[in-house]
Amino acid sequence: MHSRLRLSPARRLAYSEVASRFSAFDMGRVIAVANQKGGVGKTTTAINLAASLAAAEVPALLVDCDPQSNSTSGLGFSRNADRPNTYDLIMGAVAAADALQPTAVETLWAIPAHKNLIGANIELVATEGREYRLRDAIAPIRDRFQFIVLDCPPALDLLTLNALVAADSVLIPMQAEYFALEGVSELLDTMERIRQSLNPGLEIEGVVLTMFDERTNLAQQVAGELRNFFGEKLCGATIPRNVRLAEAPSHGKPALLYDVRSKGAESYIRLAKELMDHAARRCEPEPEPSPEPVPRPEPADIQPTRVTTVELQVEPSEPAAVAAEHGSSN
Ligand code: ATP
Ligand code: MG
Known about the structure:
The chain is of the alpha/beta class. It has a single domain, classed as P-loop containing nucleotide triphosphate hydrolases (Rossmann fold). The chain has 14 helices and seven strands. The protein has helices spanning 9-19, 42-55, 70-74, 86-90, 96-99, 118-123, 133-138, 158-166, 180-196, 217-230, 243-247, 255-258, 263-283, 318-325; strands spanning 29-33, 60-64, 101-102, 108-111, 147-151, 169-175, 203-210. The protein has a seven-stranded mixed β-sheet, with helices on both faces. The chain binds adenosine-5'-triphosphate and magnesium ion (MG). Adenosine-5'-triphosphate is lined by residues 38-44, 66, 68, 70, 154, 210-211, 239, 241-242, 245-246, 264. The site of adenosine-5'-triphosphate has 19 residues, from helix 2 and helix 11.
């Protein structure tokens, strides 16, 4: 059992202004943090993004969809404890509401993983609707959270597929290295196939550069290449390589509880702001459609007595007057 910490108002202040711009309109946006490449910062991003959203008093849920259970332990839960977990959820053995665990951050909840989740990949293969298991399982609790973050394993397996089918959008953490685009093309192809059949609404929430060292030419070059390819989908917030981010999980804490002033914690707060900004923009009302043209009355409807004949006396404009003077017909 761990004590729950409530963030001080000063910590919340930093981004409450953005949070206040959206309310109950964008309920339960499900964001899968995915990249089939290992070690790119998926779990670090999932934990710190979810915690940063929650610290703005936005109800958030982190679902650990990876049998490695790194986001489970990173939030301070013991690994492989006997409690309702993502395996039970996907196998339909437990309702999502019964699997929710409170965390040390007020308004952040978690559904922990257990190493037995690896078995779901095999056990579900012959099951009907196997790709919809997670989507259907979390459907009853979606409206309890403003954001649901799914931490995916480093593979395009059935677990990641379930996350991509359950998600509204995908946040792709990437390292700025050569062939970065080649590395992510398989994920983009998979997303495209999912859009064509299982989840037509799946969007890219953003691409976030992790372990980013802006001082190197390589990082700048790769960032430029990714900006050309992804356009505005490349997040403005980048995550620097920061030792506090690497240390925090061993203390079972998100970085903002471990060292809120660290560059790492600050960068995830900026990322959370950016995503809340996306949400706020989605909540903004559509521009008013231009007013319907007033129907013209049919000639038969016109009452002769109401017609006023006005003799138009239009002064010819300069060129026309000149043309008339010269007897031109043009
Ligand atoms: P996997 O594919 O195995 O699930 P992952 O993509 O989830 O990995 P993480 O576990 O988040 O990646 O990160 C891999 C390692 O890099 C971890 O030891 C983590 O602490 C460290 N790390 C991640 N981001 C940063 C960062 N910005 N600065 C320093 N260390 C980082
Ligand atoms: Mg991970």
